[in-house]
Structures are given as C-alpha cells and as structure tokens.
Amino acid sequence: MQMTSKDSINITAFTWPAGFDSDSTHAGLKEEQDDMGWIYSEVPASAAGVYTTNQFQAAPTKLTKQTINLKHQLQAVVMNSGNANSCNGAQGQTDALKMQALSADKLKIGKDLVAVASTGVIGEPLPMDKIEAGISQLHLSQSAGITKAILTTDTHPKTITVKCLIDNQPVTLTGFCKGSGMIHPNMATMLGFVTTDAAIDGQQLQSMLSTTVDETFNQITVDGDTSTNDMVMVMANGVAGNEPLTESSEDYPTFVKAFKLVLTHLAQEIAGDGEGASKLVEVNVTGAFNHLEGQQVAKAIVGSNLVKAMIFGADANWGRVMQAIGQTTAHVDIDGVSVSINGMQMVANSIATGIEDAKVSASLKNSKVVIDVDLNAGSAEGTAWGCDLTYKYVQINASYRS
Amino acid sequence: MQMTSKDSINITAFTWPAGFDSDSTHAGLKEEQDDMGWIYSEVPASAAGVYTTNQFQAAPTKLTKQTINLKHQLQAVVMNSGNANSCNGAQGQTDALKMQALSADKLKIGKDLVAVASTGVIGEPLPMDKIEAGISQLHLSQSAGITKAILTTDTHPKTITVKCLIDNQPVTLTGFCKGSGMIHPNMATMLGFVTTDAAIDGQQLQSMLSTTVDETFNQITVDGDTSTNDMVMVMANGVAGNEPLTESSEDYPTFVKAFKLVLTHLAQEIAGDGEGASKLVEVNVTGAFNHLEGQQVAKAIVGSNLVKAMIFGADANWGRVMQAIGQTTAHVDIDGVSVSINGMQMVANSIATGIEDAKVSASLKNSKVVIDVDLNAGSAEGTAWGCDLTYKYVQINASYRS
C-alpha cells in the first residue's frame, strides 16, 4: 500500500513509535529461541485492551484486564511464550503478580503500570526461576526481537508500522501479534499489541479498540477454538505532541483509519499463518439483512472444516459454501444466492451457473482465495478471513507438546 | 448388550421387522456399488421424521417432510446415494417428485405414502435416466443391501436390530443409517431409518422421535458442518399385533427404551465412522447446571478441532479440554472442574492432579476414548459422541469429488 494524499496513511518499515523501547531474551521456556521480552514507554501511556471470552481466562489475562481497567494507563508490558500460565489455580495468579512486580522493580515504575501476557501450553506451572532470570536479562533497546519472542506455532513474526499526520504532527502506529492455532476470537485473539506515540485519552482508546476489533480480529478463524489467553492491547504515549485526540478532532477519522489498517493487517496475518495453513481465505458477503448477519455468514463460511479442506484440495465444490451459509440463522433468499470463487461466478439464484469447474479449481491453487457471496436479503455486508485445513494442521495439533 | 429380565430388550442379528421388505440395485450414480434402493411395508405404517435445520433443505428432504406431515403415514421410502439433489432449484423439486411418483407406480401405492431420500454431492442435477432405470430394477426382498447402497464416505453399513415384548407380542425394531462427514446435526443427522412392526400412532411416534433424537443423533459431531439432506425417519407398521402404543401403555417405557437403544447405537456408529476417524470419542458431563448445558458442554468438547487432533496424536493435553469447556456459555465452577481421560483423573479443582501424562497418553491409543468432566455447577448430565481429527479427514475432504 502507498501513501494516499486524502488520508495520508503510509505503511513503512518496522520501527517503534517515539518514546517506546523494547527488548527480548532467551529465558529457557523454549529450547532455543527468545521466549521473553517487554515493551516500555518513556512516559505512562493511555492503554486499552480486549480479552478472551473463554471462561477459563488465564491468570496474566485477568491481571492485565484489572491493571488496565484501573485508569487505562500502562507504561510497560512483559511477555513470555512457551507457557500460557493458564489453569494453574492460585499459583498461577501469584506467578503472574510476581512477573508484574519483578518487571516494575527492574523498570523502576509502579506495578499498576505493567501488563503481563503469556502464551503457550495450558496447565503447566510457570517456571518462575526462568522468568526471574529472564527479566534480569532484559534491557531497553530499539530491537524488534519481542515480535519473534512471543511466537508459538507461528511461522513468522506479524508486524506493521503505519505513519500519518495528526494535528500536523507525524504519528506512528506499530502493531505486532502472534497467533496460529486456537484461533476463533470472540472479543480478541491471541496476543496483539499496538503502540503509538499519538496523544489520546485511555477511555477513547478503549472505545476505538473495541469497535475496531469487531471488524478485524473477531472476524478471523483458524480452527473454531478460543484460547484462554487471547488479548489485544494498545498503548498511546502522546510523545508525538498532537492535541489529545477525541471523536470531534479533525484528524480523528484519519487516526481511526490508520488504526483499523494496523488491526486488519495483523488479523489477516494471523489467518494466513494459521496452523498448517497453505492459503489465506477471504470471504466477502453482500446483500445481508444487516451487518451482524453479514459478519456471521462470512465467518461461518471461512470457518467450515469442509470449505477449508476443499480449498486445501483446490476443489471448487461450491455446494459446501451453500451448506455453510444454510447452517446459519441469517436471513437468506433461499432461491436467490450468488457465489463467486476467485471472481468466477459459480452460483446464481442458488443453482449452478455451469461455469467450468476446472478453471475455478485451478485458481484455488493460489495462495489467496476470495469467496464472494450475495445473500440477496438486504444491503449490508460482512467480511471474514481464515485459512485452509491441511494435513499439517492435524500434524501440529496431534503432537503439540512433543 | 444382552437381554435383561427387567425390560426384555434384546439385540439380535440383522432382520427386517414383520411386514417390511427391501431391495437395492446399481443405478450407475456411483461407479460400482449399489447406489439405490427402497424399503416397503406391506401395509401403510405410522411415520415420523426429523429434518435438517440447514436453510438450504434439499428437495427430497422438503418433499419427505411434506409427505410425512400430511397424515404421518408412509408405506415406502426410496433412496439413492451419489447425488444429494440439493441446490438444484425447481429442477430438483421436479426430480424428487418424479422419483416419488415412479416408485409409487412400481409399488402400486399412493404417492403420498412414498418418502424420498438422497445423499451425495450437492449442486449436481439428479441423472433421472439412471434413477428411472434404477427404480425399474427394484423388487421386494429381505435383502439388507439398502444399508450399503445409501453409504457415501462411510466405511461400513450401520445397522441394529432390537427385539422386545410389547403387550405380550414380540416386536422388532431395525434401524440403519449413513453418515460420515458434514456431521453436526441440529435436528437430525444425515440419513437414519428405523422400521418396526409395533403398532403406534403417527403423532405419538413423531413426539417420541423428536425427544430421542435430541439425546442421540443431535449429540454427535464429526466436523461441525450440517448437511442439507439430514433426516431421520421411523416407520411402524403395526404388523406385530400389539395394542397401539400410547404414553399410558404399560409397555410404552420398554418401547421407548428399545427405540433409544436403536438411535444411540446408530448415532455412535456414525461418530465412530466419522470421515477419516480412527477413534470413537465419548464425553460424559456431570455437575451441569441443567441438562441442556450438560449436552452443550459435552458437544463442545467432542467438537473441538484441537481436542480431536490431540486424541488422534494420543497426547493427553487436558488444557484443550478446559479450553473447550470455557468457550461455552454454560455455568462452570471456574475453580472446581474435574477432568478424567479414560478413567484417569487429570484435573481436580481446575488444576493438574499431577498424574503421569505418559500413562494417559498411552491409553489414548485405544479405539475408544472416554472423557469425563464434572463442572461442579449443578446435578445435571450430558453426553456426546465424536471422533478424532486425522490426516485422512483432510484427505477425504480435499478430494471429495475426484
């Protein structure tokens, strides 16, 4: 994407926004790679978060939610991969609190300004000796190592840096996330972080985050399973020097647009890097009765194991798309549905157009597959992203711990 | 299972109930095996059905529902595999009607006494020349060929014959079904048929069927996908000579028990023969707030791709069971959940018991896996059945049509 004159949003090479530092280290939770790290803002930043709806919310997720809800401010986030610190009972809570306190001490800031995020195996106690040693090894730098250190089954880091002008000040937004399996967010997915030097009130940030997550992270699915540790978090430290943004600010729409660009990119990155995935799948629904139903149908199609396996096999078996639409409760013109795959219309008025299957099937070998559906039941739309279901997904999850 | 003195229900070798005939033939819808057939009762039988909730109900499913709803009577059911006659628009309806009429003519009975069931690929017109030739080849016999002729990706026929005494008359119930993929019933699953020579009113039969399906077919899942052609149907022709059963009949509980045994067996058979499955998985939930929530949690666990893949890999990663419980909206004592796998308790009070993983993992290599969960939130229960997620599931569905 290139900068456009209209909204002046520009994607650039990875860089931290002004006033942010980071670092990562190998604490020994994973065998070789870095598995711990933090991000730090020179000044307390406005903060917002959305958290998993799984009833077994992990200890760090709970603690971070409590911390952010205090006054929507954070100055640091400490993270680890290799262990989710989930389903560990009271010990898990103690360990999350200790991880928070140790980081606050080392950074010489208040505990209430430190969030904690953990990801990895559920139900194994956090090895606190390793965590403690890890924190003692962390410093402050401009390194992007943390974007690798939080990965689990991901095949690559997922990052984006976006620049725009807000109130005539150059503002940077940098987002990164991890997530590959147990992805079917219902409020947030896995770990996602956005840092920005823009000035904006914490409550305003929270409201913007919640709205944008519904259109981005909540519209991806890998396997229909919701993690206990999902969380998306934003920190805005105001170092850019703009007038604090409110909904009435002239440049608020630009900032929202830049923010949505960051979250959309990260969400698509997670979908395309789903466990074992060989293809990114995008489903666009039009003609929906309302937006919610458009979103519901798009997610149902992209989440169907049968659709996902058919895409892996490059078999343009559109009946499975119909099957996935039909099992939702959305309004559907039963005799008026259209389905196109990679721009080729296979279904009109709910029956086959007679287009040559082989042509469509061949196009399913591309690394991105787009399915367009018109429900003919209204004028609303919806979009969702996912991936194909492959042998490798099964392999990864049949032997996750070994 | 053996006959018990209390309720006198006995499982026997396959046989049709008195007054029922059947036949099957190769009509050419599939390459080699029989792909058409019918069942026929010498006299009109009480009939009941439950049908898919998928919005794109296939033409034969719609027609059968209409036919049964007329007066809850049927004398024959004609069936084919290899083509679902689904998403074929007006032509699909015409073809289903023709299949009904041709069968009625050949059997010399009214069209309104003939149900139609099709299963196979969605969205390809039914080849009516083959259907017509097939019907002309069908006769009446005691053959069980139909139980093979309706299979698609199933690896073996699924049948059960049960005998019991009702009103001092020997009564037989014979059920058969097909189903392997696109299995996540929400009213009924794939095709299931029960025939019995018991005398019972059609409305009574309908009510008994609807209740029992909720505890059996609706509690299995293979891939979370609901077919457009799902249907379970019962015919009771009264040839056994018992006084027509009502809820106040002394032997009504015995009949219901026998009927539930038939449906439970068939439902488990489908789950264990799920596409690519190597194991049957049973989940028993206790301590649920109410029965509905018990059923919901059991089905969520058995339906989780991550749990299914872990069972395939024989990895006793109980965190995934917790994850699946937590993503439901059921009441859960967050700090009081127990989980046992194959009788070995891995979780107490929502944390690890410390039992040796290796022992549990080894037991996951058995062909049946039982997961017991206590939610500690009430005294209700729930059960569901499913299968593991294997490479073969992906293979089958990546190349279903080729």
UniProtKB/TrEMBL annotation, chains A, B:
Location relative to the cell: Cytoplasm
Catalytic reaction annotation: L-glutamate + acetyl-CoA = N-acetyl-L-glutamate + CoA + H(+); N(2)-acetyl-L-ornithine + L-glutamate = N-acetyl-L-glutamate + L-ornithine
Keywords assigned by UniProt, alphabetized: Acyltransferase, Amino-acid biosynthesis, Arginine biosynthesis, Autocatalytic cleavage, Cytoplasm, Multifunctional enzyme, Transferase
Record bears the keyword Amino-acid biosynthesis: yes
Catalytic residue positions: 189
Binding site for substrate: 152, 178, 189, 275, 397, 402
InterPro entries in alphabetical order: Arg_biosynth_ArgJ, ArgJ-like_dom_sf, ArgJ_beta_C
SUPFAM superfamilies: DmpA/ArgJ-like
Pfam families, per database record: ArgJ
Gene Ontology BP terms: L-arginine biosynthetic process; ornithine biosynthetic process
EC number: 2.3.1.35, 2.3.1.1
Molecular function as annotated in GO: L-glutamate N-acetyltransferase activity; L-glutamate N-acetyltransferase activity, acting on acetyl-L-ornithine as donor
Pathway(s) of this molecule: Amino-acid biosynthesis; L-arginine biosynthesis; L-ornithine and N-acetyl-L-glutamate from L-glutamate and N(2)-acetyl-L-ornithine (cyclic): step 1/1; Amino-acid biosynthesis; L-arginine biosynthesis; N(2)-acetyl-L-ornithine from L-glutamate: step 1/4
Site features described as Cleavage, chain residue numbers: 188-189
GO cellular component: cytoplasm
CDD domains: OAT
UniProt site positions, description: Involved in the stabilization of negative charge on the oxyanion by the formation of the oxyanion hole: 119-120
Entry function: Catalyzes two activities which are involved in the cyclic version of arginine biosynthesis: the synthesis of N-acetylglutamate from glutamate and acetyl-CoA as the acetyl donor, and of ornithine by transacetylation between N(2)-acetylornithine and glutamate.
UniProt record similarity statement: Belongs to the ArgJ family.
UniProt-listed NCBIfam families: ArgJ, PRK05388.1
PANTHER family reported in the protein's UniProt record: ARGININE BIOSYNTHESIS BIFUNCTIONAL PROTEIN ARGJ (PTHR23100), ARGININE BIOSYNTHESIS BIFUNCTIONAL PROTEIN ARGJ, MITOCHONDRIAL (PTHR23100:SF0)
Designated name of the protein: Arginine biosynthesis bifunctional protein ArgJ
Native source species: Lentilactobacillus rapi
Classification lineage: Bacteria, Bacillati, Bacillota, Bacilli, Lactobacillales
